[in-house]
């Protein structure tokens, strides 16, 4: 017996043997079981998805004699053993007229075909006309078919199949029940090929079947034909290397190796992988297409992991690889890959174009980020926050912040800077005796002893010199402490030549602590009183969020590091570890190099801590440095606009000429100087 190809040998004989197309199978089975039969069916879809197979199965269902004669004999499960079923399977059933419209396009052929429609079936229950590639019929043929297609005799059924339904006239489409057959996904093809090869006792490698399933492009018949070819090529076996050589396609593992090198930002490894590919003489344009295709799948894996296809049997590999890229990098690489594909026509050679495109991807990454941070999957709003924040999630973060608040107020009691912390609230009641400090100070100097005042001054200066050392951002306080104090004790005019006018009111609140506490214990208070908040801030205690906002500009951060820190709020500080909460919209910018730079800047400011930056929703009502800067800028802009609107000259221009103030062009004086 001659060899029968797999595509014909394993052709489905019933609906239940059909692979895929469940939506069509369900509709036809229900219609057959309920006796709701239409006179014309149209099956559309690409080649090899089962259009003709479905039509033949339907013909067997209509003419199977196992159920007896009459309409009650129609069944959705043909027996396959009665004379009608066997004749249809063998292609010799008289009442199944198969017409190839591609070779019989003339109107004369159609009229000859329709001349026999009126006659009753010879052998079966129904006379079935199966017209394949019906879109190839001429306009005259369609016109000749219309009337019969709309009102055929009760014993006639029309089954039409086409790969291009757009070419059918609307008058034909409206007279048929249309079923669109879908492409076969690679997973379905690989599963079916596995069963067929196991039944055929052919050894195979699963990775080779994935190559065949991808090359079939959704056609089960093409997949079976390619499998026949692979068996012959591999001498009775289906191996990955043989199938790759037979198809002439690029090994998908080389593309994954390229992307792994991209994930490591290793340009040398990227060039080495391209050199290894060059030994196989591939189509470098096709290599770039494969790279951009995988980048698209990586983006899907980051955003919606469940939607990632398994077209190459590499779903788990891509999910792991997607976590090694940031979402911004993938979008950037994809855009550069698309543009590089168009530039290949102008490159000296395709390999150069591929290498330059890959190197351009690495060159245009944001600088200062050697390796992307681990990306939580999926990359949805608050879906990635728990994965990134771990134990410091939204709920944990709020609890931690709440518990940190009392700790922050209690810690100074046990910490070394307790006097400085206690002196901060002291100035609150002291503005009341403010008018009397000057005479009281002069009268209070003699009682302790004339030598006491000179002795206390060096101690105050020593304390002032030792205290400001850690916080370099307080540049005015050390300079103002001693001179201003002496000026207040000697004469008021002294500060005027020493400093501009803003320093004149500074000596006035200074004596208040002296008048309120003339005891020797308050000797250090006058040095800290002029800048009581600054002195408290300078103490190496806990860093509050208010301190973070005040000192942010003085930290000296710049570039991406400053941008990252500007979107953070202080969540907790226990003296050893500082936790910042990062706006989730900026989570992709977080990298170890930026965290280390922020930690070093805080250490230089006197706050040596283990720094942790956690992702998650920010507390309500708490501003980040960026939000505070934007708010202050908006307030300054509003003040500037109000000042212009109230200006008499502007009002005259508005009244005389109907002038209009364009508020978007108004800039405050500070902004205009910059």
What is this structure, in a nutshell?
InterPro entries: AAA+_ATPase, DNA_pol3_clamp-load_cplx_C, DNA_pol_III_gamma-3, DNA_pol_III_sug/sutau_N, DNA_pol_III_tau_dom-5, DNA_Rep/Repair_Clamp_Loader, HLD_clamp_pol_III_gamma_tau, P-loop_NTPase. This protein is 51% helix and 7% strand.
Describe this structure in words.
- The chain is α/β, with parallel strands linked by helices.
- Among the domains are: 6-180, P-loop containing nucleotide triphosphate hydrolases (Rossmann fold), CATH 3.40.50.300; 186-247, Helicase, Ruva Protein, domain 3, CATH 1.10.8; 252-380, Zinc Finger, Delta Prime, domain 3, CATH 1.20.272.10; 628-673, no CATH class.
- Helix content is 51%, strand content 7%.
- The chain contains 33 helices and 8 strands.
- Strands 2-3-4-1-5 form a 5-stranded parallel β-sheet, covered by helices on one side. The protein has a 3-stranded mixed β-sheet with strand order 6-7-8.
- Belongs to the DnaX/STICHEL family.
- Residues 37-188 form the AAA+ ATPase domain.
- Keywords: ATP-binding, DNA replication, DNA-directed DNA polymerase, Metal-binding, Nucleotide-binding, Nucleotidyltransferase, Transferase, Zinc.
Sheet bearing the most strands, described?
A: 5 strands, parallel
The CATH topology of the domain at 6-180 turns out to be: Rossmann fold
Q: State Rg.
A: 42 Å
Query: What's the rounded overall pLDDT mean?
Result: 76
CATH architecture group name of the domain at 6-180:
3-Layer(aba) Sandwich
Q: Return residue spans where pLDDT drops below 50 for at least 5 consecutive residues.
A: 381-539
CATH classification class of the domain at 6-180:
Alpha Beta
CATH superfamily of the domain at 6-180, by name, is: P-loop containing nucleotide triphosphate hydrolases
H/I helix tally = 33
Helix/strand structural class: alpha/beta
End-to-end span in angstroms? 92 Å
The neighbouring-strand order within the major sheet is 2-3-4-1-5
Molecular shape: elongated
Query: How many β-strand stretches?
Result: 8
Strand content: 5-15%
Helix content: 40-55%
């Amino acid at each position: 017996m001659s060899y029968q190809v797999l595509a014909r040998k394993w052709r489905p004989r019933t609906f239940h043997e059909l692979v895929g197309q469940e939506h069509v199978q369900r509709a036809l089975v229900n219609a057959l079981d309920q006796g709701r039969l239409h006179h014309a069916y149209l099956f559309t879809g690409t080649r090899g998805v089962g259009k003709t197979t479905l039509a033949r199965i339907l013909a067997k269902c209509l003419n199977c004699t196992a159920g007896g004669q009459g309409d009650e004999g129609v069944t959705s499960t043909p027996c396959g053993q009665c004379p009608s079923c066997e004749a249809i399977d063998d292609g010799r059933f008289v009442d199944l007229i198969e017409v190839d419209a591609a070779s019989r396009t003339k109107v004369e052929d159609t009229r000859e075909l329709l001349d026999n429609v009126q006659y009753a079936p010879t052998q079966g229950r129904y006379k079935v006309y199966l017209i394949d590639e019906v879109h190839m019929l001429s306009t005259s043929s369609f016109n000749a078919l219309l009337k019969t297609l709309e009102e055929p005799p009760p014993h006639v059924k029309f089954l039409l199949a086409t790969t291009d339904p757009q070419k059918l006239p609307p008058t034909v489409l409206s007279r048929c029940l249309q079923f669109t057959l879908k492409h076969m996904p690679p997973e379905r093809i690989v599963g079916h090929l596995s069963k067929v090869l196991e039944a055929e006792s052919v050894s195979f490698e699963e990775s080779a079947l994935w190559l065949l399933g991808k090359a079939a492009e959704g056609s089960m018949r093409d997949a079976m034909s390619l499998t026949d070819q692979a068996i012959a090529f591999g001498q009775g076996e289906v191996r990955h290397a043989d199938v790759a050589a037979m198809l002439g396609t690029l090994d998908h593992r080389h593309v994954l190796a390229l992307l792994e090198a991209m994930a490591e930002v290793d340009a040398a490894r990227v060039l080495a992988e391209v050199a290894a590919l060059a030994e196989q003489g591939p189509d470098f344009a096709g290599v770039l297409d494969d790279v951009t295709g995988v980048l698209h799948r990586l983006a899907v894996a980051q955003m919606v992991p469940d939607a990632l296809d398994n077209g190459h049997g590499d779903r788990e590999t891509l999910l792991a690889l997607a976590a090694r890229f940031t979402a911004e990098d993938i979008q950037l690489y994809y855009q550069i890959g698309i543009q590089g594909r168009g530039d290949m026509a102008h490159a000296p050679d395709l390999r150069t174009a591929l290498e330059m495109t890959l190197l351009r991807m690495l060159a245009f990454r944001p600088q200062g980020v050697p390796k992307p941070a681990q990306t939580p999957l999926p990359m949805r709003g608050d879906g990635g926050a728990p994965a990134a924040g771990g134990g410091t999630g939204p709920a944990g973060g709020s609890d931690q912040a709440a518990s940190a608040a009392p700790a922050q107020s209690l810690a100074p009691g046990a910490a070394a800077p307790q006097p400085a912390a206690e002196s901060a609230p002291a100035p609150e009641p002291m503005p009341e005796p403010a008018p009397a400090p000057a005479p009281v100070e002069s009268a209070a100097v003699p009682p302790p002893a004339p030598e006491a005042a000179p002795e206390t001054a060096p101690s105050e200066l020593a304390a002032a010199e030792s205290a400001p050392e850690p916080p370099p951002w307080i540049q005015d306080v050390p300079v103002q402490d001693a001179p201003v104090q002496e000026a207040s004790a000697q004469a008021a005019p002294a500060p005027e030549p020493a400093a501009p006018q803003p320093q004149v009111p500074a000596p006035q609140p200074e004596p208040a602590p002296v008048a309120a506490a003339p005891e020797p214990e308050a000797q250090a208070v006058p040095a800290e009183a002029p800048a009581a908040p600054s002195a408290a801030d300078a103490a190496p205690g806990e860093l509050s969020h208010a301190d973070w906002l005040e000192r942010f500009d003085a930290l000296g951060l710049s570039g991406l590091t400053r941008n990252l820190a500007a979107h953070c709020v202080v969540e907790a500080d226990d003296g050893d570890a500082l936790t910042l909460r990062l706006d989730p919209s900026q989570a992709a910018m977080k990298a170890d190099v930026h965290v280390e730079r922020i930690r070093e800047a805080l250490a230089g400011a006197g706050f040596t801590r283990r720094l942790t930056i956690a992702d998650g929703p920010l507390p309500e009502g708490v501003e980040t440095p960026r939000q505070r800067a934007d708010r202050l800028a908006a307030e300054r802009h509003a003040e500037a606009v109000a000042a212009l609107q109230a200006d008499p000259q502007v009002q005259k221009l508005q009244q005389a000429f109907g002038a209009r103030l364009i508020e978007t062009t108004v800039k405050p004086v500070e902004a205009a100087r910059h």
